[in-house]
């Protein structure tokens, strides 16, 4: 699945919810179709019921229903369009650095790259200059079209301790050291960039994706620099890294303690790596949860429809009794009705049967009960399952 679609659907929970809803909906539709063809009383219930409202009320009701239905379709279509076409939303977070960048080092012909030392932090470099990791073996020769005197460090390792300090050592060529030649200043170019395959290090100014800025420094003498790193986490699941380099100043002490041979390296470039990075995270403009929330908010408007035209009759039995567990719920209903009859008979046996006034009053109440029942059945309570269960002994 496309990672953008995966994020838009709220990842695994959203996909599971869609699958479960579709499965449940298909089952309900199949059961409904089968039972409609199986039982005539259900067809009468859904297609041949009488309407107690006047013609003007029914016309207005139909018009408002169509308007609300059109609005619902419009809301769903608009939100689906936003999910598909709107640009992503951005969130900014601060995260821990995880891996070193790729580093390309190029220098003029009168100076050569000599060594790379790595410290867990700049403080470690200041306090314990000889306690370092030699990364010289990880820097390989790199041939560029514009400059062949380059060395490349393509980092794919993960740092246990984010941040750190890189110390790059360079030395003059022997010809200039012994003869005291005064030529042009030695130039050192350092490029810091992402490690993904979209980087093009062969260009005079290396570049990558539009989110992968390359940090660049140009030095002619020793100095300390600090680079900042930013992440752009795209919806396609790729993390693009951008870099910028700023100058901090020069070394305030002799670097002889770093190297036992002071003549081995004459120029030092220090790079302070950040511990934390600023991450710009892309999020879908509208997710599945947002769409359901918006649709649910619109459906609340349908309360106006019930306010204007009333609601349907209550159905105390529901879809399961009507379509699935028909025999089981029918048996339970008859059992409850028999229980009610027995309770009523026991109460009547305790009454004085010889009193004529009571008999007349009972008949009157019985007639009122029948009228009330008919009224409730016609306007308020869905009695379809009750009638079907009482009148039909078998399914």
From TrEMBL:
**What is the annotated localization of this protein?**
Membrane
For this chain, one GO molecular function annotation is: sodium channel activity
The primary location reported for this protein is membrane
Q: Name one GO cellular component term.
A: membrane
* Parts forming coiled coils: 323-350
| UniProt superkingdom | Eukaryota
Keyword annotations of the record: Coiled coil, Ion channel, Ion transport, Membrane, Sodium, Sodium channel, Sodium transport, Transmembrane, Transmembrane helix, Transport
Residue stretches spanning the membrane: 12-39, 59-81
How does the record say this protein sits in the membrane? Multi-pass membrane protein
Identification of the protein by name: Uncharacterized protein
State the organism named in the record.
Rhizophagus irregularis
Upper lineage is: Eukaryota, Fungi, Fungi incertae sedis, Mucoromycota, Glomeromycotina
């Amino acid at each position: 699945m496309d990672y953008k679609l995966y994020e838009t659907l709220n990842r695994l929970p959203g996909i599971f919810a869609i699958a479960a809803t579709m499965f449940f909906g298909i089952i309900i539709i199949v059961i409904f179709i089968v039972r409609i063809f199986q039982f005539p009383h259900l067809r009468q219930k859904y297609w041949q019921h009488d309407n107690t409202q006047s013609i003007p009320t029914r016309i207005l009701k139909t018009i408002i229903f169509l308007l609300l239905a059109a609005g619902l379709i419009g809301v769903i279509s608009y939100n689906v369009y936003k999910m598909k076409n709107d640009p992503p939303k951005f969130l900014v977070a601060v995260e821990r650095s995880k891996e070193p960048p790729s580093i390309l080092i190029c220098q003029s012909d009168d100076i050569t790259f000599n060594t790379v030392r790595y410290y867990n932090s700049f403080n470690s470099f200041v306090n314990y200059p000889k306690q370092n990791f030699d990364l010289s073996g990880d820097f390989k020769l790199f041939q560029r079209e514009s400059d062949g005197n380059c060395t490349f460090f393509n980092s794919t390792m993960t740092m246990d301790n984010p941040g750190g300090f890189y110390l790059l050592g360079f030395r003059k060529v022997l010809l200039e050291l012994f003869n005291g030649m005064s030529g042009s200043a030695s130039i050192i170019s350092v490029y810091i960039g992402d490690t993904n395959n979209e980087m093009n290090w062969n260009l005079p100014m290396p570049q990558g994706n539009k989110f992968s800025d390359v940090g660049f420094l140009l030095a002619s003498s020793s100095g300390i620099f600090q680079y900042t790193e930013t992440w752009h986490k795209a919806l396609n699941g790729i993390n693009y890294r951008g870099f910028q380099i700023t100058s901090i100043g020069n070394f305030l002490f002799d670097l002889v303690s770093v190297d036992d041979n002071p003549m081995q390296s004459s120029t030092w470039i220090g790079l302070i790596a950040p511990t934390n990075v600023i991450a710009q995270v892309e999020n879908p403009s509208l997710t599945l949860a947002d769409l359901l929330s918006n649709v649910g908010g619109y459906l609340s408007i349908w309360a106006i429809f019930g306010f204007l035209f009333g609601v349907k009759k209550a159905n105390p039995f529901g879809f399961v009794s009507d379509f699935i567990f028909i025999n089981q719920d029918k048996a339970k209903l008859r059992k409850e009705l028999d229980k009610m009859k027995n309770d009523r008979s026991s109460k009547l046996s305790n009454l004085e049967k010889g009193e004529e006034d009571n008999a007349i009053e009972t008949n009157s109440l019985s007639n009122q009960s029948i009228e009330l029942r008919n009224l409730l059945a016609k306007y308020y309570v869905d009695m379809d399952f009750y009638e079907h269960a009482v009148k039909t002994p078998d399914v």
